[in-house]
Amino acid sequence: MKFGSNQSKPEFTVDLKGATIEMASKDKSSKKNVFELKTCQGTELLIQSDNDTVINDWFKVLSTTINNQPVETVEAIEEDTPDSPGIEKQDKEKDHKDPRKLRSMKVSSIDSSEQKKTKKNLKKFLTRRPTLQAVREKGYIKDQVFGANLANLCQRENDTVPKFVKLCIEHVEEYGLDVDGIYRVSGNLAVIQKLRFAVNHDEKLNLNDSKWEDIHVITGALKMFFRELPEPLFTFNHFNDFVNAIKQEPRQRVTAVKDLIKQLPKPNQDTMQLLFRHLKRVIENGEKNRMTYQSIAIVFGPTLLKPEKETGNIAIHTVYQNQIVELILLEINSIFGR
């Protein structure tokens, strides 16, 4: 394909061997009557005319010229790409006489070669890929703390109470027991998320760092930890049992709740005891922080105790959740011992 008059040297030429021509998409041009010409070398040209007759003539001439172009020899194809399985030399010589078959054979051969290459590289990647345990041992991947299963987290840390829970409680008891609205007041969510990220990625966490100077950020992160447990501290399968226990006569409630807590996994029991004893100390400083049994229960009830699926009246569930937490706080020595 040449541009320019018969008397002048063409500005440039376009090799039409193996080229394609089709209507251009709207994202290529908003004008009407636009065709896109693509060559095997990667050249892309847009051809346009407002005259329908002219553009149709161009399209017919280019299409005919492309179809009549001589194709590459079989030898050239063999040099560029590996043979497709099952193609004999006799078939290649026969296909050489048919340009369409030869072009199809070349594309098929290239596709097959690329697929084999991709599969080979993928196999190498998978066989050389280190195990998850090896990556963890080298420190490239750190296990998450937030959102982790409580039992798995405790097993990983070789303890029955998560380290982060202990850190938060110790920090609050040292700096936050007399802070007004402790646990009720929300901390800055952006800073809480930063702390969450630090906990998940930094083994050496220092809560005394000035970044976490707002005590409500620490309490907010602790509440978020319990909120993000895959299964709540009181476990899904015991939810209805705890609700039924709180519905019993006052004298029977404590015994029923105590027996249910004993049925929980060891990490749940120990974490629950540490948390509730801490919250009891928060309430004991109520003259300074203005936190009561009821206000603590409202904050922690829906976080620690919830059904797997909300099927009944949510408002009623909330009442029971708060009552169970409040009962444990009031009868903490009867339930967990002195």
Give the overall silhouette.
elongated
Number of helices, where a helix is a run of at least 4 consecutive DSSP H or I residues:
16
Q: How are the strands ordered across the major sheet? A: 1-2-3
- CATH class of the largest domain, named Mainly Alpha
Give the biggest sheet: 3 strands, antiparallel
Domain Rho-GAP: 148-336
GO molecular function, one term: GTPase activator activity
Region (Disordered): 75-119
Pfam family, one: RhoGAP
Please tag this protein with its features.
338 residues, Phosphatidylinositol 3-kinase, Chain A, 3-stranded antiparallel sheet, GTPase activation, Rho GTPase activating protein 12, RhoGAP_dom
Q: Would you write up a description of this structure?
A:
Residues 86-98 have a biased composition (Basic and acidic residues). GO terms for molecular function: GTPase activator activity. Helix 10 (239-246) runs antiparallel to helix 11 (250-262). Strands 1-2-3 form a three-stranded antiparallel beta sheet, covered by helices on one side. It is elongated, with a radius of gyration of 37 Å. It has three domains: 1-69, PH-domain like (Roll), CATH 2.30.29; 76-128; 150-336, Phosphatidylinositol 3-kinase, Chain A (Orthogonal Bundle), CATH 1.10.555. It is mostly helical and 338 residues long. The relative contact order is 0.07. The longest helix is centred in the middle third of the chain and has 30 residues, at 99-128. Strand 2 and strand 3 form a beta hairpin. Helix content is 57%, strand content 4%. The chain has helices at 52-67, 74-80, 89-96, 99-128, 132-137, 150-157, 163-175, 189-201, 215-227, 239-246, 250-262, 266-284, 286-289, 293-304, 314-330, 332-336; strands at residues 20-23, 34-38, 44-48. It has 16 helices and three strands.
